[in-house]
Every structure is written in C-alpha cells, then in structure tokens.
Write a structure and sequence with these properties.
Layout: E1 3-7, H1 13-22, E2 26-30, H2 34-42, E3 46-47, H3 51-55, E4 60-63, H4 68-78, E5 87-90, H5 96-108, E6 112-115, E7 118-119, H6 121-127, E8 130-135, H7 138-148, E9 152-159, H8 163-191, H9 196-204, H10 211-214, H11 238-251, H12 259-275, H13 283-292
Parallel strand pairs: 1-2, 1-4, 2-3, 4-5, 5-6, 8-9
Antiparallel strand pairs: 7-8
The structure holds nicotinamide-adenine-dinucleotide (NAD).
Nicotinamide-adenine-dinucleotide binds next to helix 4 and helix 6.
Length: 306
C-alpha cells in the first residue's frame, strides 16, 4: 500500500481519494476550498493545508484539478518538497502542452511522472470504475497501475508524455458533438410531431445509438439515472465540456475547420448565458430555444449551489 498525496477534492477527486483509502492506501488530502477539506476529513484522510504539506513524505502524488494552469501552479509550489523518485500522476483533463510541461518539470526535479486523465464521470469515480488513459514511460505506467486500479477498472497506456491527454481530448470531442447531435435530434422530433419515447426506443437499437443517448439522454424521464432526470445536476459540468472542446479546437489545424470549433462555440454561448454549472446535456435547452427563436430560460443550477 502506498502513501498518497491527493490534491483537488472536487466532484471527481473527492470520491477517487475515498476509493484509494478504501483500498488501504494512506491518503493526505488537500484542496484550496475549506469545505472540500472538511469533507475529506470526514472521510478519514489526513488533511494538508497547502500543496507542499500534501506531498511531503508521499510515494505517489495525484492531482485532480480543473485546468493546466492549476496543475502547473501546484507542481511549481510542491515539486521541490517531494522526495526524489516520487511518482506524480495528473488525472485532470488539461491541454497536451501543459501536460508535457508538467512532465518536464517533474523529471527535472528528479520525479517520475504520468498523465492519466479519466473517463466515466462522477458515477465512475464513486464506483471505482473509471477508465484511465495514461501517458508516460513504461516503468512509470507499471508503477502507477496498482494505485489507479483502486479507482478504475480500465487502465490503458496510450504512449509517451501527453498521450493520455491527447486520447482524452479526442474522446471528449466525440462526446460533445454526439450530445449536440442527440439534442438536435430530439428537438427536430418535437418539430416533426414525434414523441421522445419512440425516438429513444428506435435510436437505442439503431445506428444512432451512442453513450450520450444511452447514459446521459438530454430529455428528462427517458433514462432514470441521467442528469436530465435530476434537474441537470452534473455529472459533467457544461463549463468543463467547453474547456475540453476548446482544447480540441485549438489543437486542430488546417484549412477545413472541424466540428470542434462549432461545438465549442455552442457551449460557449450556453456557458455565457449562465448555464456553466449544469450538466453538459442541458445544451438541449440552447438548441430548443434557438430552434424556437426564443431566449434561453435561466439556469436551474447556479454557481452558488453546493
Ligand atoms: P471540480 O471543479 O468539481 O473540482 C476541482 C477541485 O480542484 C475543486 O474542489 C477546487 O477547489 C480544487 N482546486 C482548484 N485549484 C486548486 C489548487 N490550486 N489547489 C488545490 N485545489 C484546487 O472539477 P471535477 O469535476 O472534479 O473535475 C476535475 C478534473 O477532472 C477536470 O480537469 C475535469 O475536466 C476532469 N473530469 C471531470 C469529469 C466529471 O464528470 N466531472 C469527468 C472526467 C474528467
């Protein structure tokens, strides 16, 4: 069992750290938010009050933070304090350039390093069924595997530094676009006089079937566990989907623009209209309003909700 410093205890990091502890690892936890630290204390973790205190004495450090700048800031603060040879695993979804910069900083400080973003959402984080997509050396991957196995059940080595983030961005490009497509289809069905249930039944067993429909259907009441059936509480917040689509759009080059930029523009409008903390499937509201030529209704979840 390993001594783990865990930094970033939000919707994902909180349950991931809990699963590490349940598997017998010793967790020292830190989050910038006092309420996240309080929740971690209740879970039985040792609490640190800054990143250096979380990594001191750790064999493995795990970060689960919003964006690349957050990860690089934590690495800059804490790398100098960790024991040489400590394995740093960043599970956040961040841009590939920042991921590679984090690897370089870690290696320059005498550490081992892996980028290992996840798929599976908060349900997967709670159930320890996440998919990890890892980038880094073979030895670093082998060392990380038993710790990642306490939080997930699919652990894939994608290649060298940054490869895990590349896989994650490509996956979420598909996810964002497929959610827009599913939402547009339901709105079109309404216009054509087709009820949601038969459309769901047909597409579920036809070639349009996809994760966005089956697990995260944007029409309430069709999938019991989908965020739409629970007031669009995330799940995966629309602001995070916007971040990922921007990463994909920024990485795309060439003269023919792909769908990443269009999808990002749609989520940009949605988040700018106050819906960033709703689940990303709530994009159907923007698509429905645009189809009707009406303004989008206010968000059901605000930034101040717990
Ligand atoms: P979140 O906003 O719920 O949690 C992030 C946590 O990091 C917060 O508690 C915040 O206080 C903390 N934090 C921010 N800056 C910090 C710092 N400098 N030091 C310490 N703590 C800091 O986000 P989340 O939903 O847990 O997502 C985390 C990452 O995982 C993101 O990169 C996201 O894109 C990715 N992700 C999320 C999901 C999902 O379904 N929510 C799924 C896959 C991947």
């Amino acid at each position: 069992m390993a001594r783990v410093g865990f930094i970033g205890l939000g919707n994902m990091g909180g349950p991931m750290a809990a699963n590490l502890r349940a598997a017998g690892h010793e967790v020292t936890a830190y989050d910038v938010l006092p309420q996240a630290r309080d929740a971690a204390r209740v879970q039985g973790h040792a609490i640190a009050f800054d990143p250096p205190a979380a990594v001191k004495g750790a064999e493995i450090v795990i970060t689960m933070l919003p964006a690349g700048a957050d990860v690089l800031a934590v690495y800059a603060q804490a790398l100098g304090v960790a024991r040489p040879g400590t394995l740093w695993i960043d599970c956040s979804t961040i841009d590939v350039a920042s991921a590679r910069a984090a690897h370089e900083a870690a290696h320059a400080a005498g550490m081992e390093s892996l980028d290992a973003p996840v798929s599976g959402g908060v349900a997967g984080a709670a159930a320890a069924t996440l998919t990890f997509m890892a980038g880094g050396g073979e030895g670093e991957f082998a060392r990380a595997r038993p710790v990642l196995a306490a939080m997930g059940n699919r652990i894939i080595h994608c290649g060298g530094p940054g490869s895990g983030q590349a896989a994650k961005i490509c996956n979420n490009l598909i996810l964002g676009i497929s959610m827009i497509a599913v939402s547009e289809a339901f709105v079109l069905a309404e216009r054509l006089g087709l009820a949601p249930q038969p459309l769901f039944d047909v597409v579920s067993s036809s070639s349009g079937q996809c994760w966005s429909l089956a697990n995260c259907c944007p029409v309430p009441g069709l999938v019991a566990a989908s965020p739409a059936s629970h007031g669009f509480k995330p799940g995966f917040a629309a602001r995070l989907m916007l971040k990922d689509l921007r990463l994909a759009a920024a990485a795309e080059t060439g003269e023919a623009p792909g769908l990443a930029a269009s999808a990002a523009a749609l989520y940009d409008r949605f988040v700018a209209s106050g819906h960033g903390d709703e689940d990303f499937s709530a994009i159907i509201k923007l698509i429905r309003a645009a189809a009707a030529g009406t303004p989008i209704r206010p968000a059901e979840i605000s930034c101040n909700d717990p």
